[in-house]
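Morning - 1-O-alpha-D-glucopyranosyl-D-fructose inputs below, output right after.
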Amino acid sequence: MERKWWKEGVVYQIYPRSFYDTNGDGIGDLKGITAKIPYLKELGITIIWLNPIYASPNDDNGYDISNYQAILQEFGTMEDFEELLSKLHKAGIKLIMDLVVNHSSDEHPWFLESKSSEDSPYREYYIWKKSNQDGGEPNNWRSFFSGSAWQLDETTGEYYLHLFSKKQPDLNWENEKLRHEIYQMMQWWFEKGIDGFRMDVINLISKVEGLPSAGKDKVGFDGLAWGGEYFVTGPRTHEYLQEMHREVLSKYDAMTVGETCDVTPEDGVLFTGKDRDELNMIFQFEHVNLGQGKEGKWTPKPWKLTELKEIMDKWQTKLHGKGWNSLYFNNHDQPRQVSKFGDDKVYRKESAKMLATYLHTLEGTPYIYQGEEIGMTNVYFEELKHYKDLEILNKWEEIKQTGSLTEKELLEGVHVNGRDNARTPMQWNANRHAGFTTGEPWLGVNPNYAVINVEEALKDKDSVFHYYKKLLELRKKHLIMAYGQYELLLKEDEQLYVYTKTLEEERWLVLLNFSNQKVLFERPRQLQLMRQELILSNYKVDEKEVLEKNILKPYEARIYRI
Ligand code: TEU
Ligand code: CA
């Protein structure tokens, strides 16, 4: 086992817009993060990942960047950033930034230049194409945010590619000049002292030459098709990442995590393998994509525990000794984990603690998304008009045209999977707007803030927060949590998730009840118990209780040394 700070650390993800507002404009800011360092320190996290804080017209909340080396005015100044970074470092916390380089904003000077003429030196910074023979879009790809992935630009009469919104034109990585501009920009941030990058949709940067249309069999209700085979982990992806490593990353003690959709554990080994010189770890999506129906996330359906086990077991075993996993259930794009994988009503606290026990005992680096540590839940706004996310609003426009879903059906889907579930303001206390702002918040707070908030959680010794704190303390003491090898037991069980962790002579047993019922645990015969020492649990457990036939309460979690 090769020890690394980014393997042993715990990452806390901050969505700055919704974290803490210090000037009453309803928008979280950098000073707000600085103000909360003591809170983060108390929780025990060691690394922070910030969602984009760069200059941006905010079509997609900062994922459309118009200047990679300037701070979004609403968030503060470069001085505010420097102060934040130095105070974090003083507190022993590292900082990783979001790197969004599959696309820029259409208001980036590169794009303004690029669209101005076919002869512009910046033309090749983006992906331009003439219309097809019928005068329509160059191919049939659907964008991630509904509608065609192509936009006609009047100035030159050509189309540009945008896999996301039309204000997020894709950068052309085939162009070496563009690649080197990006490397220089990364270097500039490293020289400022940051500790790494989370790389947005980094496995979309290489597209198949010619950009062919997807097959007719893939064409859907909107006449468009998912063209993933031509841009997901495209032909030059690994080459580009190795070049980036050579030119930039190898010069720093950096942490990198790539956001990679549609990947297998085999891809995972290629991206994160020790001798590959690409990335430290990736975010894969298989487990968070569980339970999607005919229109994906908008039409959710039930999922089974055995499906979750199959996915996670595969990632745990196939990367063991070869690569490294990142461990997460939610982030700014996903519903709240306690709502999706636990129970956000009767057993909110129990299930929040159980899910934490799970993630923090798997092999890999765990990520906590802001508010997860107090068990924040999905928001159930009563009307679509209360949501702000362009993914939701574009889908709404789309269904009005195609009629593929009713408004009510879409609202139900949004309640389960909409991205704004994660983006409602952080709940600090029971005051107006949850203490997030003295003004009007940019997105409504979750009405449950009177009960679920930080002040409450700090007071209550039995809170989700204090349980996370214990888990993080344990993780600092016991290397087995990060590095121990995972082995699944009771593979077929639909309620209990049971596994052992092994590191040299040390052996732990993790018992998790993923259901809202009492479940009988019968010790599998192959499981030998040398000892039985309770390390942590989310209910009171009689320490003398012998592990043989035991009743596990709803969402119960126990860790034993055995
Ligand atoms: O997300 C990319 C992605 O693949 C999805 O998570 C997507 O945002 C959505 O959930 C599809 O249903 C990254 C960022 O995390 C996201 O916030 C950005 O909107 C997107 O890239 C574009 O930069
Ligand atoms: Ca503010």
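Note: DSSP finds 17 helices and 22 strands in the chain.

O.
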